[in-house]
Amino acid sequence: MPGLNSDQMQRMAANAASSLRILFTGVAMDSASFAGLLSTALRTLSGGASGEVCAEALNRLSSVCQVRSFVRQLDALIFERLGALCGSAFSEKPDKIPPDALFHYQHAVRLAEICKTLFPAAAEKINQEIALQADSLPLVRPSAAHLDSVQSSFLRMKLPALGAVLEQQNGSADLFASSRIFRHHHGTFTPLNLPGIRKVEEFYGYQSARRMFYDHFEAFSQGKENWPLLISSLPGLGKTQMTIAYARHFPDIVLIVPDPDDISHGLEDLVNYLTPITGHKFMIFFDDIDVNQTDWYYFRTNIGGTFSLPPHIAVTVASNQAFPANISSRGRGFTFPMFDEIRCQEMILDFLLAKGMHDPKSELVSVIAADYVSEFGQKKFEELSPRTLVRYLDHFLSDQAKRRLLLETASGKVIPQPDPQVFYEENVKLMCAIHGPGVMEQFRKEALHV
What we know:
By secondary structure, this protein is of the alpha/beta class. It has helices at 6-23, 34-46, 51-63, 70-86, 99-115, 118-131, 153-156, 159-169, 207-221, 239-249, 262-265, 267-274, 297-302, 325-328, 341-354, 362-377, 386-398, 400-410, 420-435, 439-448; strands at residues 181-185, 188-191, 229-232, 253-258, 281-286, 313-319, 332-335.
């Protein structure tokens, strides 16, 4: 906080040092550990030491925050100490929390609040004073400007959520060990069993989508990145199925499926709850989001805004609509190509190859696609989409008589072709249902730059 004078800094540092000592009562701190270096820096600043001595303490503290940020280490330290001191006390109603637990909680809050601004302000003040001397160089390394707790998950966490985290931390059964997918509703996590979700090797066609999903979830699993993934397409193309399948493919990823409204109002609390649980990688999946009806304020704030997600948490959002520019710019966007007669045949070819057929002929692929479209015309499927095509192909595989008939048809002189007009009409109908009846005219104007 620019503008703090020496007396204010010393008083703040003394209060923070006092709270840290209370949290560590009866516990020795290794002088080379994060806690030890934090304690040394606070005591040095509170004692009115020279600029050189204070700079050395800040630089040593900064040196242990290169790989793991200061705020993450401070949060971990506070969670560990409150867990050891208070156990599950915060799981009670606020008026039932024991006085000693509240005492320690208040000191933890004071420590984190002071650390929001103290060290960056001290580093700035020391360097400014040194700059007044002729031919001088800064004493405090630039990375000390990041020794703050502005993004502290602990400070943003409500007491009931804190109690649940500390209870788990203290050796209770791991809530997220019972399943790989959880429904999140009003603060409660319920394991989901989704037997109908295919494995990643059971998706066909759409090579670019499959490659993108694999690369994205693999990078998150390996801790390389946690960019939000923003997926848009018409219904039935695979947004939901692929997200769940690729999340399950990597064993350290736990998929959390919140209520759609939580993207507007519950995202911050959910992230705060999951932040200290670092034993899993959490993919928060918002499915079927209405882009136009969503209040994006909390998303913009928490995803690349004021707060950034910790590395073990990522977000995927799926919608039938395109995302606005100020949202899509915050992550990795992917739009599924429309399902037409070309992609229908690509899927069929991929399916036949995956089932062991050597070099399937284009005539057979065309005959199968035409039969699929014919069955759609007979109202055997509610839509033309990869979703219903997979159902058709599963039936094709199990129906020996149908397979024989289509093989014979593919050997004939006249080869049926899938009707492109049927795909076009179905896509237009879906687009009008989602975007309104004027969408095609709007697209035509955009294409003509009118």
